[in-house]
Amino acid sequence: MQGNKGEYKNSLHCAKRIVMEGGPFALYKGVIAPMTGTGVVMALYFVAYDATETLIRKLKGVDSLTPLSMGEIMLCGGSTGVLGSLVLGPAELLKVRQQTALSSGARGSLRDVILNIYRKEGPLGFTRGIGATMLRDVPGSMAWFGAYEYTKLLLCKNPKDPSVGEALFAGGMGGIAVWSFSLPLDCIKTRVQASSVPLTPVVAFRAILSEHGIKGFYRGIGPALLRAFPANAACFAARDKTKSTLNNLCGM
C-alpha cells in the first residue's frame, strides 16, 4: 500500500484487491524474506542495546542496578537501529519487490526477485534503501526502547524484573511509539525500494508529498498500529523472561 502510487483507497480496499487478483495467499506475498531477517535483526537489536548499555555503565563507573537516564536509554536504542538496518534493509527490499511484482503482473517468487535485482543492479542492488532504512530505524529504535523503558518506570516496582503483564504492556507501548513515529520514514523507505530507478530519500519524500500530501506519509497506519501492540508486547516479554531465566541459570 505504501509503495503504491494511489491505486488503493485504504487498507480494506487494498486487501480486497490483493485477494481478488492473487487469492488469499497473496496477502502473504514477500513474508519469507522479512521473517528470515526479522529474527536475526531482533537478536542484533537486543545484543547491541545490551552492549551499548554495558559500555555506558563502564564509562560512568556505575553498576547494573543504577538506572540510566532517558537520554542514555535512547542512545542505546539508536545504536540498535544502525546495526539492524544492515540486515533488515536487504530483507525488506526483497519483500517490497515481491509485493510490487504482484501488482504489476510480473513473476514475484523470492528466487525471481533475487535474480532480477542481481541481473539489473548487481550485488550492490541489494543495498538499495539501507540508508533510508537506517533513517527510519535509528530514531525509531530510540522511540521504541525509550517508550518501553519509560512505561516500565511508571508501572513496575522493579523495572529490571517486570512481571509478564508489565512486560507485555510496556512492550506494546513501545510498538505503538515506534510505528507512530517511524511510519512516515517507512513510507519514504518503501518508495525508495519499490522504485525501478534509483531514488534518494529526499526525492521519495517530495514525490509522496506531491502525490498525496501529508496524509500520504501515514498510509497504512491503521494496520501498522493494529499489529504493533501485540507483536511488540510478545517480543519484549519473551526477551525479558528469557533474559531473566538465563541470568538465574547462570547465577548472574
Automatic annotation (TrEMBL):
Key words of the record: Membrane, Mitochondrion, Repeat, Transmembrane, Transmembrane helix, Transport
Keyword Transport appears in the UniProt entry: yes
Residue spans of the Solcar repeats: 1-55, 68-154, 162-245
MF terms (GO), sorted A to Z: O-acyl-L-carnitine transmembrane transporter activity
Biological processes, Gene Ontology terms: carnitine transmembrane transport; mitochondrial transport
Transmembrane regions: 26-48, 68-88
Membrane protein topology class: Multi-pass membrane protein
InterPro entries for the chain: MCP_dom_sf, MCP_transmembrane, Mitochondrial_Carrier
Location (main, coarse): mitochondrion
One Gene Ontology CC term in the entry: mitochondrial membrane
Cell compartment(s), UniProt: Mitochondrion membrane
Sequence similarity: Belongs to the mitochondrial carrier (TC 2.A.29) family.
The protein's name: Mitochondrial carrier protein, putative
Organism: Trypanosoma brucei gambiense (strain MHOM/CI/86/DAL972)
Phylogenetic placement of the source organism: Eukaryota, Discoba, Euglenozoa, Kinetoplastea, Metakinetoplastina
